[in-house]
Design brief:
single chain, about 350 residues, alpha/beta, Rossmann fold, 2 domains, two-stranded antiparallel ribbon, 9 helices, 11 strands, about 50% helix
């Protein structure tokens, strides 16, 4: 896959001054960690706002977004450079097609990511989703199956459409907490998180141009949070956290070699079968034979002895008959030889 062209991050200048300052500070934290680049993978179902979130982060329209057109059918990498630091954001097609997990899309994404190192993952969904259904769980499992469970340790749940009005009688903070808990609990269960592991963090995003702003022109959520610097800060925390970046290598793409899988266990399995399966069976058979031989009734023992005696006598009789026949043949041959010599003597007398 060809390397994406790195361009100057001009979109950074389009943000309000305070947002620019916050972003520069966060990029400085990465430089302090000796990181010269940051690669963010964006995953999720279709129509949840993945491409819109990418555009909001870059400050440019790098991914086509339209309510009347299908989203991108292949991954797109956007690379922007600022003060020697490179930000790579990979937008991907939706993971659901026709009410099922789109395995073809997952395969395309895997091959696009070959030899790339992922520092953080944004799993995008909508805040105004009222429940986590079985399809959501299937998508979570599919991501873990295709990229390994480790990818969820680099994940950040991004809930879009955050500027909403909750149902009557429900506080905004309560609605956010319930929606976040339902999704993160599903991730913990389907991705195999241990009890001691931290829950996947959640951030809220509002990409709409109708998003409220503060006095400085920064986009804010209903609770007053300036969401873009908050999103980038969480990404930086993941990239500099304990979880190691994930290299998408050929082994991950093609899977393990079935011919090599488990070869080291073959000798051990053979030894186990010999000592713990074959040997006990053989010992048991020998014991059964010995027990049967010792516990036979006397009449059967005498019958066996009689058969052996009869067989021995028959063998001896056969040997004697063969010996007698052999002797008789030898005597006949000697008699014929003697007649021949007598004939020779008669001939000599005539001369």
């Amino acid at each position: 896959m060809a390397t994406a062209q790195v361009r100057e991050w001009t979109g950074l200048q389009q943000f309000p001054a305070q947002t620019q300052t916050a972003l520069h500070s966060l990029l400085g934290r990465l430089r302090q960690e000796n990181m010269e680049s940051l690669t963010v993978l964006v995953l999720g179902k279709g129509g949840v706002g993945k491409s819109s979130t990418v555009n909001s982060m870059v400050g440019e329209r790098v991914a086509v977004v339209s309510a009347f057109q299908s989203e991108t059918l292949r991954p797109i990498q956007c690379s922007r450079s600022r003060a020697g630091f490179t930000l790579n954001i990979i937008d991907t097609p939706g993971l659901v097609e026709g009410g099922c997990v789109n395995d073809q899309a997952l395969d395309i994404i895997r091959r696009f990511l070959l030899n790339k190192t992922i520092d953080a993952v944004l799993y995008v969904d909508r805040l105004d989703g009222y429940r986590v259904d079985n399809l959501d769980k299937q998508v979570i499992r599919a991501i873990a199956r295709n990229f390994g469970p480790q990818i969820w340790r680099l994940a950040l749940v991004v809930l879009t459409h955050a500027q909403l009005s909750p149902p009557d009688g429900v506080e905004y903070s309560d609605f956010v907490a319930r929606r976040s808990a339902a999704l993160t609990d599903a991730i913990r269960q389907e991705a195999g998180f241990k009890k001691a592991e931290d829950t996947v963090p959640v951030v809220l995003v509002e990409n709409s141009g109708r998003c409220n702003t503060n006095t400085g022109g920064e986009k804010i959520l209903p609770d007053g949070t300036v969401w873009l610097p908050n999103l980038v800060e969480r990404i930086v925390e993941i990239a500099t956290g304990p979880a190691k970046s994930l290299l998408i290598d050929k082994k991950l793409i093609e899977g393990p070699n079935a011919n090599q899988r488990g070869k080291l266990w073959i000798p051990l399995l053979l030894l186990f079968q010999y000592f713990f399966v074959l040997k006990p069976i053989q010992s048991r058979i020998n014991r059964d034979i010995e027990d049967e031989r010792q516990n036979r009734p006397q009449w059967e023992v005498r019958a066996e002895q009689f058969r052996r005696t009869s067989m021995l006598e028959e063998e001896r009789a056969d040997e004697q008959a063969i010996t007698d026949a052999f002797k008789q043949d030898n005597l006949d041959d000697l008699g014929e030889l003697g007649d021949q010599f007598e004939g020779l003597d008669d001939d000599d007398d005539e001369f």
